[in-house]
Amino acid sequence: MEQVITLKLKLYRPTQAKREMYQLMADRTTEFANNYLKLDKKDRPRTSKEAKEYSDPLPSAVLCQAVRDIKSKPKARRFKRLWPAFNNQNFRVEKEYTAGGGAVYKVSFPTLEKRVGVPIVVTPYHKKYLDLLLAGKVKQGVARLVKCGKYWYIHLNLTVPVERVQKPEKVMGVDLGLVDLLVASAGGQTLFFPGGGLVYIRRHYADLRKKLQKAGAYKALKELGDKEHRWVTDVNHKISHAVIEFAKFHGVTKIRMEDLTGARWTKAQGKEPRKDHGRSLYYWPYYQLRQFIEYKAALAGIQVELVSPDLTTLTCSRCGETVKSRPKSRWFKCPRCKRIKHIDVNAADNIAQAVSGLAS
């Protein structure tokens, strides 16, 4: 079994000249992509030699990969940004040792000038996978040169082999919601992520957007959107990491989650909560959170299954009795067996049992 991961490697203090060159490469790659889309399909270049006719000077490796990236998005009509990318033959990771015995990691890739090694910032997490790459134990994929804020990064795809150890099956259910953003339940042990602390920040961003839109400050509006996206992604990364660590600690072999594909959760809410960016379910990227949990679970050798969300909040997880409407309080009180349980924990236990069946 294999799992693809992406390492986000920050370039260490590139000079002003290098930063300007990276930006020029990004601008030219995007311009080439949009010129490519304007051509009839029969006239579109297939090789880097043909592509050079439709682009300002760029390395052949970048043009070749750009063509592949464009073809991978057949529905694209225009690219807001297509970052320069390099395949595994044109991008290298290197490790050098200092006089004091320390290690410095560098990456090298074709640029508008010569090919040079660029130092990168490496955390213990990065080091683990970079050392596996240098030892030939993982496969290197596409690397992209990306700007985030004022910093430049390399997004490096790696294909990592994952060994699944046979253990007695233990299933954990994960319920996604609003008052509690996520609740995980495994064998009587629970993990809560309250959503209240996020409400203020989401409202803050929503208020800022309204003010900037009213003022016509579109550049600041775009920067705010990028900042909010980074914040949301960071929160989802932290939650997914905690969920997987919780699962590993309790010996979980399988995680079950609701399949919310295509669901518009706002339908179940009143008009006022739907208008509130802090309270509306529509404004949190649950799909991204699910993706993070899935790939981190795969790396930990834990299986993930999607189940139907039907009746998970209306069914007693102990006796299976179903009520007609969702309890107004935060507690589920079973009319038959009299069991009282937190409503989200009850839902997570039902998800673990797949009371409505697996997602089709």
Give a verbal description of the structure:
- It is a single chain.
- The chain has 360 residues and is of the alpha+beta class.
- It has 2 domains: 2-161, no CATH class; 171-353.
- The chain contains 9 helices and 14 strands.
- The protein has helices spanning 16-38, 48-51, 60-71, 124-134, 196-215, 218-249, 271-275, 286-299, 343-353; strands spanning 2-11, 85-86, 92-97, 103-109, 116-121, 139-148, 151-161, 171-176, 180-186, 189-194, 254-258, 303-307, 331-333, 340-342.
- The longest helix has 32 residues, at 218-249.
- The relative contact order is 0.11.
For the largest beta-sheet, the strand count, sense and barrel status come to: 7 strands, antiparallel
Overall form: globular
Indicate the multimeric state: single chain
What's the gyration radius in Å?
24 Å
Low-confidence segments, ≥5 residues, pLDDT <50?
A: none
Mean pLDDT: 87
Secondary structure tally: strands = 14
Reading side by side through the largest sheet, how are the strands ordered? 2-6-7-1-5-4-3
Order of helices and strands: EHHHEEEEHEEEEEHHEHHEEEH
